[in-house]
Automatic annotation (TrEMBL):
Residues 22-122 are annotated as: Disordered. Its main location: other. This is ABC transporter substrate-binding protein. Residues 45-70, 98-115 have a biased composition (Acidic residues). Residues 28-44, 87-97 have a biased composition (Gly residues). The keyword Transcription regulation does not apply. It comes from the Archaea. Keywords: Signal, Transport. PANTHER family: IRON III DICITRATE-BINDING PERIPLASMIC PROTEIN (PTHR30532), IRON(3+)-HYDROXAMATE-BINDING PROTEIN FHUD (PTHR30532:SF1). It is found in: Cell envelope. Residues 227-406 form the Fe/B12 periplasmic-binding domain. Pfam families: Peripla_BP_2.
Length: 448
């Protein structure tokens, strides 16, 4: 007699039942390559690597941060800096604040048995993905989806594109929530390798990442690689959400909480999701109380520094609807680049220098790539350098000391609370907690 089918076999069978036809949905009509083949845009751990390298260690200031977007030759997301950072603060009113939470549609998401039977989840661009059991092990693209999983009570992902871009030190702000990423694999430290995915597929039940991203952002991936990986039994389930500047992303974008809701369906943790929706709504109400009128809100410039601690030029970001900017939208700040000819980095790999920045002269400078630094360490390095620079020292923000860490590229429901509270402190001087840390820990730990 043959052996009894294992849980792993059931998961693989479910993927096969869904059919490789769903891969067509994963890749889109043009194979998902859009216009960003390797040199374009990205979204995930390795989404922001664009040849800009820096020394940063998200915990110690010594790691090489290839920001997971895409290394022009296929790496991470376009900014290579030194993500240091540990602040807390933030407040938001608007934009992503009330992003159709609680309205996560379940069309096409069917369950045969609420207590562990087969079920399916539908999301762009992957289509409908069927599961015969709830995944227990997983890999994620970046800190956005990784954080969603933690919020849903899951173990950390086995791998992400770049572990140094998953800023787990932010959980230090919330007693009772801890994430150990010491054994987490970084998939995009060099070239993203389809063979590594095939091997990892033996150990994880699902790849929580947009399948179009590696095809659109890496020169050495083809549509057939996605098909081969999924045919081996491990499905992709994700949507690139942190930025909306990528031409190849020609399908539906999701807000943070829409994506969060889809992952809750995948892990069958809708009750935890609804608890976070309620907490987030309360948080948004608290933000409304601290955000001033429009005439009192500052203009801000969000940038990636080159080099990280002694910048001479910057990669500029325009605030869009991606999750990367949620705290700034919710705080209602003015985008200093929005009314200029400055092109968003994600769209054109653009750069600006101090002379152009002085012409715009934003009220506040928000510098990314330094998330491994404390606020004091940031002031002693980046701000101190600008204060001693013959051009930068004339900027209003530098003169007033309004130069801050701009937050990481990736945030999920937990880290967004921390980063928004921190941001409110930075731009509005808010002093005090804006969300219930104990409630966050309770939800994560299953005390609903």
């Amino acid at each position: 007699m043959g052996r009894e089918p294992s849980r792993r076999d059931l998961l693989r069978t479910g993927v096969a039942a869904a059919g490789i036809g769903t891969i067509a949905g994963c890749l889109g009509d043009d194979g998902g390559n859009g216009n960003g083949n390797g040199n374009g845009n990205g979204d995930g751990g390795a989404e922001e690597n664009d040849t800009e390298s820096g020394d940063g260690d998200d915990e110690t200031g010594t790691e090489t941060e290839v920001e997971s977007e895409a290394n022009e030759s296929g790496g991470a997301d376009g900014e290579n800096g030194t993500d240091d950072g540990n602040e807390s603060g933030g407040n938001e009113t608007g934009g992503d604040g009330n992003e159709s939470e609680g309205d996560n549609e379940t069309d096409g998401n069917e369950s045969d048995d609420a207590d562990g039977g087969s079920y399916s989840v539908t999301m762009e661009p992957v289509g409908t993905v069927e599961f015969d059991a709830v995944p227990e092990t997983w890999a994620a693209n970046n800190g956005s989806w990784a954080d969603m999983g933690i919020a849903l009570g899951q173990e950390p992902p086995e791998a992400v594109y770049l572990a140094n871009r998953y800023h787990t030190q932010l959980y230090d702000e919330i007693p009772g929530v801890e994430v150990d990423k010491s054994g987490m694999t970084s998939l995009w430290e060099g070239e993203l390798d389809p063979e590594e995915f095939l091997a990892l597929g033996e150990d994880v039940d699902v790849f929580v990442m947009d399948p179009n991203f590696p095809v659109g952002r890496s020169d050495n991936w083809e549509d057939g690689d996605i098909e081969q990986i999924e045919s081996a039994g491990t499905p992709f389930f994700g949507n690139s959400i942190f930025s909306r500047g990528y031409e190849w992303h020609d399908y539906e974008y999701l807000t943070l909480y829409e994506a969060f809701g889809k992952l809750a369906e995948l892990f069958q943790e809708e009750e935890r999701y609804e608890a976070f929706v309620e907490l987030h709504e309360e948080f948004q109400t608290n933000l409304e109380d601290v955000v001033p009128g429009e005439e009192e809100r500052p203009s801000v410039a969000i940038m990636w520094p080159q080099p990280a601690e002694a910048p001479e030029e910057f990669s500029p970001y325009l605030i869009d609807e991606g999750t990367s900017f949620k705290q700034w939208r919710d705080l209602g700040v003015e985008d200093a680049f929005a009314t200029t000819d400055v092109e968003d980095f994600h769209a054109g790999r653009s750069a600006i220098d101090y002379e152009l920045l002085l012409e715009i002269d934003p009220d506040v400078l928000l510098i990314r790539g330094n998330e491994a630094k404390t606020a004091e360490e940031f002031e002693e390095t980046v701000l101190a350098y600008m204060e001693g620079h013959n051009v930068a020292s004339d900027l209003t923000a530098v003169e007033n000391g309004d130069v801050y860490r701009g937050g990481p590229l990736y945030q999920g429901p937990i880290t967004n609370l921390v980063l928004t509270e921190r941001a409110a402190s930075q731009v509005y001087g808010v002093d005090g907690e804006l969300f219930d840390r104990g409630r966050v820990a309770d939800i994560v730990n299953g005390d609903l």
